[in-house]
Please model this.
Amino acid sequence: MKDAINKTTARALIARKRYGKYASPHEILGIIAEELHEATIEVHANNWPRFREELLDIAAVCIRGASEVTIREEIDQI
Model:
C-alpha cells in the first residue's frame, strides 16, 4: 500500500507542476470521469497492470482536488 500512496503523491505533484491549479470543481470531475473511462477500457481488456495505473491516476486527481484550492476560489469568484 505504501508504494501506491507514494506513486499517487508523485503523480499529483507532477500534474500540479505541469498543469497548475484546477480551474473549477467541474474540471476535477471531468478529469476523474475521463480517467474512470480509461480504467473501464483496461478492465474490458483484462489488462490488470494498466488498470492499476489508471486507478493511481484517479487517486492522484482526487488527492489533488481535495488538497488544493481552485483558481476560482483563489481569486474569490465563487
Notes: The chain has four helices and no strands. The radius of gyration is 14 Å. The chain has one domain: 2-74. Residues 2-74 form one domain.
